[in-house]
Write a structure and sequence with these properties.
CATH topology: Rossmann fold
Radius of gyration: 17 Å
Largest sheet: 8 strands, mixed
CATH architecture: 3-Layer(aba) Sandwich
Strand content: 15-25%
Strand order of the largest sheet: 1-2-4-3-5-6-9-10
Number of helices: 11
Length: 265
């Protein structure tokens, strides 16, 4: 895959792009992630699909401190990427966690742009029974003792979970040490916008065939999923046994199989 850039509203959006098929699949990572963690998913769809993996604003190689961190800004970024890198035909949008929330809003606001929608451990947002999770996540990212001297020191702090290993692989090497490819305060503000309200109206506006993929031990509340399905009975859902929130990293083969089956219909 090659790295390409799209510029919009003073922000540089870095993307990985590959394949040349007629079907376009846009992949969106979650909070504090990057396109890199979705490369294995993308590669499993090549070469028969044209795949675009976006570093969302504030993440990866995209603009690190964007001025606008609203949900609208993230949605318009995806619209700009699709407009510049595709022929304009409807695309499949696949989003994990916060990326799923972005994908949902794109599908609701631009139905002509979205052929299919896949939410991987993604929901409608809001807080419900999850407490003040933006503050908790912000505090966690702020607690990182950066810069890390080397990968070993980073691993000692972050651990060896699949998401920790993804962060380790993606560390930014600078003269003074290793840094994450995001700023804690940017993450706090970005996820606070997701938590600000539950987008039930937008969920009901989605017309594209939709697949919900959840981890058996994921974080999307069961009550939220039940309401999502009750409001849109046509939605398919799959629960991946043994997986948590980062299904694409924890049970990659199962995730890829489910995604490919959905895309092949």
């Amino acid at each position: 895959m090659q790295r390409v850039t799209v510029r919009r509203d003073g922000v540089v959006l870095s993307c990985l792009e590959g394949g040349a098929g007629d079907q376009v699949v846009v992949l969106l990572h979650g909070l504090a992630g990057s396109a890199a963690e979705l490369v294995p998913t993308a590669e499993a769809l090549l070469p028969e699909h044209h795949v675009i993996v976006v570093d969302q604003r504030g993440h990866g190689y995209s603009t690190r401190r964007p001025r606008d961190l609203s949900r609208r800004a993230y949605v318009e970024d995806v619209v700009a990427v699709v407009a510049e890198l595709t022929s304009g035909a409807p695309v499949t949008i696949v989003g994990q966690s916060m990326g799923g929330h972005t994908a949902l809003l794109v599908a609701a606001g631009y139905p002509e742009l979205v052929r299919r929608l896949v939410l991987l451990e993604g929901g409608v947002g809001g807080r419900d029974d999850r407490g003040d999770y933006p503050a908790e996540l912000g505090d966690f990212f702020t607690s990182w003792p950066v810069p890390f001297a080397d990968v070993r020191h980073a691993a000692e702090f972050l651990g060896d979970t699949p998401i920790a290993e993804a962060w380790l692989r993606d560390l930014d090497r600078r003269p003074d040490g290793l840094w994450p490819r995001f700023e804690p305060e940017v993450m706090r503000t970005a996820i606070a916008a997701v938590a600000a309200r539950a987008c039930w109206d937008e969920w009901q506006q989605v017309k594209a065939p939709t697949l919900l993929v959840r981890g058996e031990h994921g974080i999307i509340p069961a009550a939220e999923v039940r309401r999502m399905v009750s409001l849109r009975p046509d939605v398919e859902q799959v629960v991946v046994s043994g997986a948590g929130h980062d299904v694409h990293l924890e049970e990659r083969d199962a995730w890829v199989r489910i995604l490919r089956q959905f895309l092949s219909r």
